[in-house]
User: What shape does this take?
Amino acid sequence: MPAPNPRSSARIIGELCCANCGYRLLGLSLREKCPECGLPVERSLRSQIDLGSLEGRPLESGRTIAASMTLLAIGFCLTLLTRPIVALTVVFRPIDTELTIYASDVVPLRIAIGITATVGLVGIVLMALSRGIIAHVSSERPLTPRRRTMVIWAVVCLVLVDLLLLGTAFTPVPWLVEQGRTARLTWLIATLLILRTIGHGTLLVLLCTALSSIGWRSDRYRSAGNALQAAGPMLATLTVECLALAAWMLRGTFGALLTSRTSSGPFLSVWLIFSSLVAVGGIYLLMNTIWIVRPLFRAHNRLGELVELVPQRTTASMADASEDDRSP
Assistant: This one.
C-alpha cells in the first residue's frame, strides 16, 4: 500500500482566513477547499505564511524585520517624493539671475529647497532607524565590502547635501551674499541635486537587494517574479533626470535659461517629467514592500504555528496494533 500523503493528515490549528473571501479555516484539512468560495486551503496558507518555514528556514523576528523593511521603504519614498519640488518651482516660477538672493521672486525657490531638504532629512532618519534590515540582508544575501562601503558613503552624502540645501534655503552662506546674485545660487543647487541623485541611486540598489532577499519568502513575490521590483528602470530614470539637470546647469548663460521658458523648456521639461516618474516609482516601491512583508506581520506566520500534522496509521501499523491487543 502506498505511503499516505502528509498533506492529507494536516489540518489548520491557528487563525487562518481564506485569502479570497476571509472565511475562517480553523480545523480544515489542507486538501479541502474554502466552504464559501472554493479556494484551496493550501493556497490560502501559502499566501499568508513565511515560505521559508516550509523549507525549515523560518525567519527570526519576522515582525521586526517586516517593520524595519517597511520603515526603510517609507524613508526612501519620502526622499524620492521631494525630487519634483524644485523642478516644479523652477518651471512655473522662473527667476532672473540679476536679482539678489533676498528678492521676493527668489523666495518660492528657497522655500522649495527648504521643504526638499527637510523631508529628505526625515527620510534619512527613518532609514537609519531601520538599520536592522542591513544585518538581515547581510545574513540572507551577504553584501560585498565594496557595496557596504557604497551604502555608507551614500547615506553620508545625502545627509551633507540635505544640510547644505537647508542652509542655502534659510541662511545664505557668505560667498553667496558677497556675490549678491542668484546665478551662483542656482549652480550650487544644481550641483547638490546631482550629488543627491547619486546617493539615491545607491540606496535604491540596496533596497531592491533587500526586497529580493526577503521576497523569496513571499508567495506573491515568487508569482510575480523579477518583474515585481527591479532597480534597472528607476536607475535609468534617475540617470536621465540627472543628465537633464546637468545640461540645464551647464548650457549657456544662466540668465537666459532661467528667464526664458523657450530656451530652457526642453531641459526643464525632461527634468520635471523624469523627477516625477522617480517619485511615482518611490510610491510603487513602498507599496511593493508592504505587499511582500505583510505575511510577516501576522501573529502566526510559520508553518508549525498554523498547521498540525496528524499522525496517520498505515495498514502495517494497524496490524501491529491488533497483534499487541491480542497478546496476553
Remarks:
- The radius of gyration is 28 Å.
- DSSP finds 14 helices and two strands in the chain.
- The chain has one domain: 62-297.
